[in-house]
Structure formats: C-alpha cells, structure tokens
Amino acid sequence: MTTVRLTVGAVLRFPQSRVSPVGAKKPAKILGLGPMATVLGAPEEQTIGHWCSRCRGIWYGYLLEVACPVCGNRHG
Ligand SMILES: [Zn+2]
C-alpha cells in the first residue's frame, strides 16, 4: 500500500494493480471521483484509483465504474 501525501493535505491510497502512472516522475493529477462514488458517498476505502492516460491523472471510482469522469475515457 503506497501512501501519497499531496500538497492539499489529502492522503490518497493507490491500489497498485489498477494504477499505472507510466513514466510519471511528477505527481499525478487527481481528477476527482466518478459519479457513482459521488452519488453514493462511497467511503474512500471502497473507491478504486484509475489512471486516465488522456487526462494524465488519477480518478477514483466506486465498484464497477470504469469511465473517467472528466473525459469519459474507458481504456486507461
Ligand atoms: Zn480522462
């Protein structure tokens, strides 16, 4: 379990198998939560981090959410 502390003070956990920050030496952009996670008020522990290669950032989805909430990319 990797813990990344951002300048905003939020602590985010990155599930290693679902996030692939390819060549990312600089901190990844946090895109926010997917609609399901937002609507359901999912606890942070139950959201899964996804890498979006279009936005070059990470967004958090709940359960089966697979599309980036920013651009709709479903392919990572
Ligand atoms: Zn995106």
SSE inventory with pairings:
Elements: E1 2-5, E2 11-14, E3 29-33, H1 35-40, E4 47-52, E5 57-62
Parallel strand pairs: 3-5
Antiparallel strand pairs: 1-2, 4-5
Zinc ion is lined by residues 52, 54-55, 68, 70-71, 73.
User: Main beta sheet, described?
Assistant: 3 strands, mixed
Order of helices and strands: EEEHEE
Overall geometric form: globular
Q: What share of the residues does DSSP label as strand, in percent?
A: 25-35%
Count structural domains: 1
Given as residue ranges, the uncertain stretches (5+ residues, pLDDT < 50) are: 6-10
Could you tell me which ligands this complex binds, including any ions or cofactors?
zinc ion
The portion of residues assigned to helices is under 10%
Q: Which structural category do the helix and sheet elements fall into?
A: mainly beta
So how many helices? Answer: 1
Total number of β-strand segments?
5
User: CA-to-CA gap between the ends?
Assistant: 21 Å
Give the overall pLDDT as a whole number.
78
The neighbouring-strand order within the major sheet is 3-5-4
C-alpha-based Rg, rounded: 12 Å
